[in-house]
Design goal:
There is one protein chain. With 230 residues, the protein is mainly α. It has a domain of 159 residues. Strands 1-2 form a two-stranded antiparallel sheet. One of its GO terms (molecular function) is hydrolase activity. Keywords: Hydrolase, Membrane, Transmembrane, Transmembrane helix.
Amino acid sequence: MKIKSLILLSFKIILIFLIGYTISHFLREWINEVCHSLGVANEVRIILSRFSVIAYIVPFLMINVRSIFSAEVLRVGNFRASISFPLIWRGKEDPVWRFLGIFAVVMVIGTSYFIYSYASGLNYNEFRLLLYYGLIFSLVNSILEEWVWRGVALSQYIKWSGSVYGLIVTSLLFGMSHYDLGFSIWVCIAFSIGGFFMGGVAIRSKGIIASILMHIYMNIIFSMTGMIFS
C-alpha cells in the first residue's frame, strides 16, 4: 500500500473510531444515570453499561449495513487451523485449540496471586456473587466486544488494508477504547496486546467463536482479581 493511501486510510479509521468512541461514551453515561436513578445494583449497572460498545458499529452502519451481520462476520471458524506464536504468522506453530489451552494455563498461573489476594478477603456469599456476576459479565462483554472488534471492525479493516495492518490497527483501537472506562494507558496497552492475540485467533481460525471463548476466559480471570467490580 502506498504511503499516501495508508495515511488517508489511517485518518478514515481514526475518524470511525472517534465517532464510535464518542457515541459509546454518552450511551454508557446514559445507562449509568438510568441505573443510578432506579437504584440498580452496581454489578448489574456495570454489566448493562457494556452494551454501549455496540455504538462502535454505528459508523459501519453508515458505510454498509450488511457488513455487520454478514456470514463472514458471524462464522464459527476452524479450531484445528494453525496459529503461530508470537507473531500470528511467524513463530512456533500450534492448532488454535492448543493455543487456547496454553493461553488459559499461562493466564491462570500469571494471575493466581492476584486472584488469591482478592478472593481470600471475601466471605462465601460475596465469593458466590462474584462468580455469578463475573460469569454474566464475561458472557455479555465478550460476545459484544468480539462481534464489534473481531467481527465487524477487523473484517472491514482487513478488506481495506490487508490482514497485518488490519490486525495491528484493530488491536490498538480495541485497547484504547478501554480508556473511557477508567483504565490507565498502561492497562489499555496490555488490552491491545490481548486484542492482538484474539484478533490473530479470529484471523487464523476464520471465525469469532475461538476469540469469544478466549475473551470470556480473560474476563472471568479479571473479575476474580477484582478488576471489574471492585
